[in-house]
Specification:
Elements lengths: L1 H23 L46 H13 L1 H22 L4 E13 L9 E16 L4 H67 L5 H35 L8 H4 L20 H4 L1 H22 L4 E12 L11 E10 L7 H67 L5 H35 L9
Antiparallel strand pairs: 1-2, 2-3, 3-4
Length: 478
């Protein structure tokens, strides 16, 4: 009976050791699977081409801004990617996520603590001891603990932390996409404002010349005072547009400076001189709608969110089962330094521990329901992100194609209005037409030229919106 009682615990220990590898391979919770999303086989719209003789399409969307062939624009985008503060914040969040992954991974291994101390004490005399006793105490110890991940809760935690790191990376990439588009959009708007300023000043000069000639004709008795006032009013109205356009141009420069992580006035000297409005010289590589799922960082980020939420279901489900910990301690203690390391001064302990909360008022199950609801939310958010991305591409396609038609119509309108101004002026000079017709022709010409400038800008900015919707601007910018 005695020998049997000694063998039974050994058998149980051996059985437990043999089962541990199989138990440790068990992981609670569902495994992550990439969500299946059905998308159309083709886009409804067609890729716009900036010019009829466009060269081969830009196959790599990583540096789509180079399609505008504007060194200044390229420089601004590249500098923004180096100095933008939002990007630097995103990089900080990546480092935080990486550190959190390291913390989660460290929980898989054993933890070892060590402690050493020395104390000198004096105990007073007592009834059993006639003199006070002074002595030293040396202590040295090691404590170790290792939670065996029987049900995969710790490994699911590492998996969730890894997905969080992926989401942080995709968030930075999404910022790169937005930043490049925002810099390009502001730059195009600035060049358009400068172009509109030039048009306003040119029309103002012509209108002031007309007002001066009308004043001279009035002095000679060939025109009425009403004609003079109308001519001066038209010139004053055009002059009133110039300060507004100048303010908008200055504010746009300020916005670009802030995007580059600089003070508002940093780019004034560089961007105040007028420059042409850049036009893209390449077709857009649309690809297939399914390519968008792999290209756009916001979709990839949403997918990582599903992954993290799925892994945390496993963490919560593992809490329903007991945790198994192996702990041990080794200590040395002595009244002298040399005696501390004697074998007789050694103390140790080793053994497993089982922890299983049996009554927690449903806290663990409620937490599991919470994680499952979070996963459902992430799935719905993913579907919404995909639909939004598809819609942005289709919106950009239709806007690009229709705006080009609008620009061509406005170009014809400008040519017709210039002819109308020449004819109206000639007829008025010959006395065959009233002065109001001349003013209406000049007013229409200025409106058409300003509308053409804005339409030309919209053609380029719609193209930028399309590049952004396609998820271009982050590959190769890591």
């Amino acid at each position: 009976m005695i020998s049997r009682s000694h063998r039974t615990p050994g058998r149980y220990s051996l059985t437990l050791c043999l089962c541990l590898p199989f138990l440790a391979s068990c992981m609670m919770g569902p495994d992550f699977q990439r969500p299946e999303t059905k998308v159309s086989a083709q886009w409804l719209g067609q890729a716009p081409v900036a010019v009829e003789t466009a060269p081969a399409a830009v196959q790599d969307l990583a540096q789509w801004w180079t399609a505008f062939n504007d060194p200044r624009l390229t420089s601004l985008v590249e500098r923004a990617m180096q100095a933008n503060l939002d990007l630097r914040l995103a990089e900080s969040r990546i480092r935080q996520a990486r550190a959190s992954l390291g913390i989660a991974g460290a929980d898989l291994g054993p933890a070892v603590d060590t402690a050493a101390s020395f104390s000198r004490s004096r105990n007073p005399a007592s009834s059993s001891r006639s003199e006070a006793v002074t002595g030293n105490l040396y202590q040295l110890g090691f404590d170790a603990g290792w939670e065996i991940d029987l049900f995969g809760g710790l490994r699911r935690g590492v998996e969730a932390a890894g997905a969080d790191l992926d989401a942080a990376r995709e968030s930075r990439r999404d910022l790169l996409v937005s930043l490049s588009a925002e810099v390009a959009g502001n730059y195009l708007n600035l060049r358009s404002l400068q172009q509109r300023l030039a048009i306003a000043r040119q029309n103002l000069k012509a209108q002031e010349h007309t007002a001066s000639l009308t004043s001279q004709r009035f002095s000679a008795g060939f025109a009425s005072k009403l004609d003079v006032v109308r001519a001066e009013a038209l010139a004053a109205t055009t002059a009133g547009q110039i300060p507004l356009l100048e303010a908008q141009a200055r504010q746009t420069i300020y916005s670009l400076s802030l995007l580059l992580g600089s003070e508002p006035s940093a780019l004034l000297a560089e961007l105040t001189p007028e420059g042409p409005l850049p036009v893209a010289l390449a077709a857009v590589p649309l690809g297939l709608p399914s390519d968008l799922l792999l290209r756009r960082p916001d979709i990839r980020k949403a997918e990582a969110g599903i992954h993290a939420a799925t892994a945390r279901i496993g963490v919560a489900r593992a809490d329903l089962f007991p945790s198994f910990t192996i702990s041990g301690a080794l200590g040395l203690q002595g009244t002298t330094f040399s005696s501390t390391f004697n074998r007789a001064s050694t103390a140790w302990s080793f053994g497993p521990a089982l922890n299983w909360p049996l009554f927690d008022l449903g806290r663990v199950r409620a937490n599991l329901e919470l994680k499952e609801a979070v996963q459902e939310e992430e799935l719905l958010s993913y579907e919404q992100t995909v639909l939004t991305a598809l819609g942005e591409v289709e919106h950009a396609l239709i806007a690009s194609s229709r705006e080009e038609e609008h620009r061509q119509a406005m170009a014809r309108a400008v040519a017709a209005n210039r002819t109308a101004v020449e004819l109206a002026t000639a007829l008025y000079t010959a006395g065959q037409n009233d002065f109001l017709t001349v003013l209406d022709a000049q007013r229409s010409l200025y409106a058409a030229e300003d509308a053409l400038a804005q339409s030309s800008r919209n053609v380029s900015t719609n193209l930028v919106a399309l590049f952004k919707a396609l998820g271009g601007g982050w590959r190769g910018q890591e």
